[in-house]
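An example makes the point: we print one protein in full, the chain in one-letter code, the fold tokenised, without further comment:
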Amino acid sequence: MKLWGGRFEKATDHMVDDFHSSISFDKRLYAEDISGSIAHATMLGETGILTGEEAREIVEGLKGIRKDIAQGKVQFDTEAEDIHMNIEKLLIERIGENGKRLHTGRSRNDQVALDGHMFVMNAVSQTRDLLQDLMRTVLSTARQHLDTVMPGYTHLQKAQPVTLAHHMMAWFQMLKRDDQRLREVRDHADSMPLGSGALAGTTYPLNRQRVAELLGFSRITENSMDGVSDRDFMLDYIYAASVSMMHLSRFCEELVLWSSHEFRFVEMDDGFATGSSIMPQKKNPDVAELIRGKTGRVYGDLIGLLTTMKGIPLAYDKDMQEDKEALFDAHDTWTKCLLVFDGMLKTLSFRKEVMEKGAAGGFTNATDAADYLVRKGMPFRQAHEVVGRMVLDAIRQDKSLNEFSLAQMREYSELFDADVFDALSILACVSDRRVPGGPAPQAVLASIESGQKYLDECNS
């Protein structure tokens, strides 16, 4: 007999039991569900809705169930539909009729909402730990390469020289925004919905603030209909996962390119690469490629839940059972990718000499040649045109700008003088860009220190 079966004259079809059941995936919410039930029972006892002894027996029974589930001693029942009904059924079996009092003043609607809020708050803490570990690895990499010059790109063509440290700190800023976004997600999830009932609250004198206090929430939800039907906080988490996975995917795309023979900027550690079943020379960046591929999976979780929610009227509807698999998958995929990406980056070898050689080609100092003329008094647009003609001739002659003699440069402008060669050196092109946020070592070091301060404050 179902715990809700009093109104029904016949049993649910076995096919519907399987179709309707969510225990196969929501069983992972057992810890959140039991914690919520313990807080609810405690409050019922404190308010006199249950006697103190009734509440204590329920709480002890729930603690025993939690311990047994953690030790793998519990077999869940598909016919009990979900984790909430399974735990209640187990409680009744263990402590008898008193177990039936647990559900006083609540509905599965506000119960499942509570579990979701608690899961997301816990997920945020876990994910932020992994994100900040990766941020530390990026900072460490940047510190080691303050003077490693490499080409910067736009349109995947060489643009201007930068340092590897500067490049790494660009990724740090993205990860920092991911971390800040998660702080906002936690704030959105930090509202306690239990007491909303099915949709209209309850006539029992519940102390909702007390339940919030017991569970570590800073506030309660303010509308019972919204309390049971809100899934925005889940969407926020999956959106945060999607943006962060996009960042990881872009990073991986660079590592895939950089590890190719055409670039040879990096060498993947053997522990984070694979070979070919037919080509003995291959060393494939499969970890980076797989993270890049899994980004689409997380996007799918976001679009799937957005689509599920878009047509649901207030308040709770069974469609919302589809929220958990998307949330769980986004969380599991994101955290696993953060963990393996951190390991891959820690073991990566950078070919400094290849990077520095790459920075010297492709006319990456052309902008500096134009800036040199501007400092000598020429308007920038005119300087841009002059250097553009120099580049065109250099391409035709298969030489770099530095390979022009001073006399040849003066054929383009009399403003060129002997100091132009110092201005066009790759090191000068980097070190002279001291503007805050720029690639000069001192500017990058300031950025690194700012990043370290952020992480220190996160953990203070």
The chain has 19 helices and four strands.
